[in-house]
Amino acid sequence: MRLLFCGCLLFLIGCGGGGPELPVSGIVTLDGKPMANVTVRFFPDTDTDPTSSGYAETGTDGKFVITSGKGKQGLVAGRYKVTVSKGKAQTVSSEEGAGAVIEGLDIKDEFPPCYSDPAQTILAFSVTGDGQPIEIKLDSKKK
Q1: Mean pLDDT over residues 43-64, rounded?
Q2: 83 near 40, Cβ under 8 Å?
Q3: What CATH number corresponds to the domain at position 64?
Q4: Among 63, 55, 59, which Cα is nearest to 83's?
Q5: Rg, C-alpha atoms of the chain
Q6: CA angle 37, 38, 42 (to 5 degrees)
Q7: Enclosing domain of residue 126
Q8: Is residue 4 part of a domain?
Q9: Is residue 10 domain-resident?
Q10: Structural domains of the chain, count
């Protein structure tokens, strides 16, 4: 009976969604200067729990703390693709001048796809729980 109970307990623990959330924090810099109000997103890579993802917005000092899609701080251990974006809203209207009817809102990202597009990003980091802040160093010369 004890063996059956232990087996069931181990099964339930194993179904916890990839493990505990580990703290993930860091700083985003562009050419060595902290970037404020930038959105940082972590997307699970192939070896990471596919339901694990996270996001944060940098403060005025460029620092961030990732919150998981489940609303908890941190992410499960694994490898993640990372995107950094900062958009500028552009309105598209059907007429010019005051009182124009706005048909849509287009967000144009300030960063090139190598930083802002999940399919093209060159940024990747491993979440290990070592407590070390992640440094996301961006270069304005990248296209």
Answers
A1: 88
A2: yes
A3: 2.60.40
A4: 55
A5: 20
A6: 140
A7: 19-138
A8: no
A9: no
A10: 1
- Backbone CA torsion sign across 85, 88, 89, 94: negative
User: What's the full length of the chain, in residues?
Assistant: 143
Residue-wise DSSP of 14-57:
HTSSSS--B--EEEEEETTEE-SS-EEEEEE-TTS-TT--EEEE
Alpha carbons 68 and 84: distance in angstroms, whole number: 16
Residue ranges of alpha helices (H) inside 27-132 are 113-116
* pLDDT tens string 77-124: 999 999 999 865 444 444 444 444 444 444 557 889 999 999 999 999
CA-CA distances (angstroms) from residue 67 to 5, 76, 97, 130, 131? 34, 11, 41, 17, 15
Dig out the tokens for 100 from the structure: 């124009």
Residue 136's identity, in one-letter code, is I
